[in-house]
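Late entry, evening session. Most of the bench is empty. Finally got around to the prediction I had been postponing all week. Sequence below, unchanged from the version circulated by S.P.
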Amino acid sequence: AQWGITTLVLTCLLTFLFNRIFIDPDDIQFQSLRSQLRGGGGDGGDCGNLTSSITNYDLLTTDNFDPNTANPDLTIPECLPDVFFPLRRTGERAKEIGDGNNDDNEQQQQLFPTPVERNSPCWGMLIRDDIILTTSQCSQITLFFDFPDEKVGSIEANPLILEEHELEKMDPRLGFLKANKAPDHHYFVEESTKRTRMFLSLISNPVNGNGNEDDDHNNGGGADVLMTCDDRNRPTAHNFPVDNTNGTTEAVPLSHLAHVVPHDILWKERDMATAPVLVDDHGHRSWTKAVSLDAELKKFSKLMDEYQGPPGSVSIPDAHNDNKQVSKTGALCEAVDPRGHRRQDCFKNYFFRWRHATPFGGMHFFDWLDFGEGRDLMETNDTETMIFHKHSDLKCFRESFDRKKVHYFDDEEREKHEVVLKPSEDGRELVARYKRSDEPVPENYEDDAHLYVWDLENKLYVVDHNWDSVKYGKIKHTAVLAGRPALSAGEVYFGKGGRLTGINWSSGHYRPGITAVSTLYQWMKNEGFNATSLNWMGRSSWNTVKCLKNDWDNVKLPGYNSTSLLRSCLEVTSGPMWFRKEEEDDR
């Protein structure tokens, strides 16, 4: 009977905890701090509430931690060193909040009048990559900390000034620092967030359930649990340790932060229960909210539209259609890869495995590949589970995969390679000069062709494929437009003084069709150029019959119509300047 009563009491306790640790962010109205910290949110860069699964955890309490020392007890739970650490001072005493005439600074000084002592250690909780919770005194100076990523090292954390209405809700013993140079975490190359490092709880003492949101901040012995590590090794903050004037350590509950931090900092119970963990190569952990497969596929579909371009253009996804949607997506992955545009060869097998995993793991594809199950699959490279067997797939081990990347141009590099075509003095030939420098494009030969890309705005870019090869290796066509669609791409030949002598459509990434030939030829005629002054070198299967069979009505390029494109196609493929050659990727 006694055992039954005990079981009943424990059941009631867990039910009570489940119902209490839930924050509805819709009830929070404060905007100023939210606007300062926005950008780390989205669907993964948040910090939030403790899950109800606290039956197994390690504790850090006021009994085994002394905030006056920078050397905590070695028994600190293993999930905490990355997120709870001493903060280091700058070489000289930093300027404190409250100096000067700024009204916000004066308000901060009035509420937090005591400056930090030079020899008093400062401790911080890394809630999110860019947000550190600390004491009010420590939040008034610039400090440094070791970011949980060896490649980043030590970074600076600066005072985060709160508005008056936020200060009124904030416990005056606590404050925030902002790591302004904390690295972004990318789901895709153009979509970034800040990673969740630890969670905040409404429960100040998970042992006895004490610590309601309305509890007095100093609730005595019931508020002695600082942080916990649960059975999934997730660090959760319940209280923050501060040093009293009488030499004792007091635990300040954190439930009031629900009225201060921005909405995206707060997680609901169901998000905690399903949150996947991201583990980097050094074992550092972060968390993201689970995503659905349907939502991720819709994101890829939207990106596919962005990278395909209008009908009649050339693009990476269209070049790798092969009647398999997963092949198109695998090619797209190179362009949107947030870890440096790794070569497309390896993506399709791993994208297929991620998509068809049962059950679906709830992770973004690139998170799964680099911080989840995909990383282990790539280490073992079990070819028996590969769907698409190709020689390059068998070499998709992590080390080589991470090393073989395609350099994508930034705006500066791209502008340096923009070329302007003009007629020669006698009007018979075309001369190419770089737009920025007005220098002619260097002479080259048949076995040393330059690559070109012609973008959707009729801008022509010419690059020596050995440009900066020591640093980047051989340049690919996708590098020039950062994987975006184009009107044409291939190789181009020049004589002395930038004289244009020949052009082809040899591009393994874009694989232009005969539409690209006709479009470029038509553009040259529209510009008044002598399009017959150079050699046009097409594929072996491109001829007048191919022109007649092409679906010109489906070409939707501004400034071009089906009638003129058909006429140009017949004209160029039947003219004396037309040459056909066999190519490895001929089609």
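Two things to note before I forget:
Residues 293 and 359 are 10 Å apart (CA to CA).
DSSP finds 18 helices and 24 strands in the chain.
Will write this up properly tomorrow.
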